[in-house]
Amino acid sequence: MGATMIICDAGCQNKFVVDRFMSARIGGGVEKVYIVCPHCHREYVASYTDPEIRDLQIRIRRVQKRFANPRADRVKAAQREAEIQTQIKEKMEALRARIEGTHDDGE
Question: Is 32 helix (H, G, I), strand (E, B) or coil?
Fold first, then answer.
């Protein structure tokens, strides 16, 4: 990841530069990927992953490598990539809701 300017919009409103994400195991095989404002220490979670999501991420990287192969069926690879990406998105959203206790209805 290249350096990115961030505004701590949920905290102190200061700007800061992020050049990498941090990660922490939070139990049950779940890993949290996040950044922290260096001024007020407000934490911003980018994502949560569990073993199943990490396996899907490995699988999608394998599929993406097919695009470099001139003999590969790129249409089939793109379809598979989209299928896996949808699975990852759904599972990440469900995991975040379970961990943070968020609901689709805004509660």
Answer: strand
CA dihedral 7, 9, 12, 13 (to 10 degrees): 50
Read off the pLDDT of each residue in 83-93 and give the average, rounded to a whole number.
Answer: 98
Whose CA is closest to 29, among 54, 59, 63?
A: 54
- Given a contact cutoff of 8 angstroms between Cβ atoms, the answer to whether 91 and 56 are in contact is yes
- Name the nearest CA neighbour of 30 among 95, 88, 101, 84: 95
- Tally of CA atoms within 13 A in the half-sphere of 75 that contains its CB: 0
Q: What is the value of pTM for the model shown?
A: 0.80
Residue length of the chain = 107
pLDDT digit string, tens, across residues 3-42: 899 999 998 999 999 999 999 999 999 999 999 999 999 9
Report the C-alpha gap between 28 and 30 in whole angstroms.
Answer: 5
